Amino acid sequence: MTKNYSIANDNGIARVNFYSQPTLNEIKAATDEIFEKFPYEKRLWDLSNINFDLGTEEVIAIARHRRPKIAKPNKIALFGSNDLAYGVLRQFVAHSELGSSPTQVFRNEEEAIAWLNKE
After folding, report:
1. Given pLDDT bands bounded at 50, 70 and 90, which one contains residue 100?
2. 95 to each of 63, 64, 103, how far by Cα in Å?
3. φ and ψ at residue 68, rounded to 5 degrees
4. Which strand (E) or helix (H) includes residue 85?
């Protein structure tokens, strides 16, 4: 089975890109992989090339799935290029806020990377 996403080290940032609209299971698989194989403290989820649209129940399921995986503080930046994606990602942040792992939503890559690299 071909993966619908890629994860790579981009100058110390673990970057996740999806090729098409991900399913709940694909997002969970990417979450598992990023925490198991990419020990970077900065994470960038690029959802700008897809029509990212999940229901509230799926957003909550993803937030719950990631909580036990965060063993050390991480900065997590999410960005989507359309209003729907931005709104869904804001819902995700509201359901997954962790004090030691700040998560922010952005509308473009440059702002997301600048925030990740800010001390």
Report:
1. low
2. 6, 8, 11
3. -70, -10
4. helix 83-96
CATH number belonging to the domain at 5-117, selected among 3.30.1490.270, 3.40.50.720, 3.30.750.24, 1.10.1660.10: 3.30.750.24
- Residue 68, pLDDT score: 64
In the three-class reduction of DSSP (H, G, I as helix; E, B as strand; rest coil), residue 16 is classed as: strand
The DSSP symbol for 69 reads G
What are the tokens at 37?
A: 């194989």
Look at strands 103-106 and 75-79 and give their pairing: parallel
Per the structure block, which two tokens stand in for 85? 């994606």
Amino acid at 69: K
Q: Global pTM?
A: 0.83
Q: Which of the 8 DSSP states describes residue 81?
A: S
Rounded to 5 degrees, what are φ and ψ at 70? -85, 100
